[in-house]
Amino acid sequence: MKASVVTFAQLPEEEAAFLAYLAKTGDVWARAVADDPTNPAHHPAPVADFMEAHARKLANNGTVNVYLGFRPDVLRPIASDIEGPKAVDIFASCLIGYTRGEYYAGGELAQSNLFFYRGSFRGNQFVDKPDAFLRWATRVLGWAKRHAPEQVPVHQCNYQTRATARVAEAVAGGLKVWY
Question: Taking the model in full, what pTM does it have?
Answer without folding.
Answer: 0.94
